[in-house]
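Message: I would love a firmer grasp of how sequence relates to backbone shape in proteins. Thank you; the sequence and its tokens follow:
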Amino acid sequence: MLRAMIFLALLVPASGFAQLVDNSPVKFAFYSSAWGENAVAGMRVVAENQQDFPILLLSITFTTDSNGQLVIPLEIAVPARGYAEKELPYVDLLSDDACVTDTMSEDWRLVEISNYTLNPSVRSLIIEDTSAFRIYQCVRKVATSWSDDSGSEPRLYEEWVLYHFERRLGR
């Protein structure tokens, strides 16, 4: 038991976000081609419902460094044990976060923002050149709001997201 507790303690980040880890049953990721190409583009959010009943993903609220909030209204119906996605107009999720601003100024390219760690087995699906990349991550607080399809009170999960960046070797 002691070994397990020590192992878990080593997994908890020392950044102060440990109390936010709440293992939300709703996983999500944001993507935008605007992040890598300086193109005018929207965003896409993909959500996974890990529960045995359908939900409505209402919103995700980002906490900013200036103690503000940026609410992303979603209204995505996600089936039980299933996935859903939605195209959104572009929302600036890069500003007002020192880690993100500093990282972007050092020639990193944002790949995704998600409430889960980027799994190495799926990196090849979103990373252009898997033979020459490194991942760097910034952490940001969010509040995820969803309800089941019975119209119950919305549930709010305070959690964190990771900003996954890519920089090709040799740059």
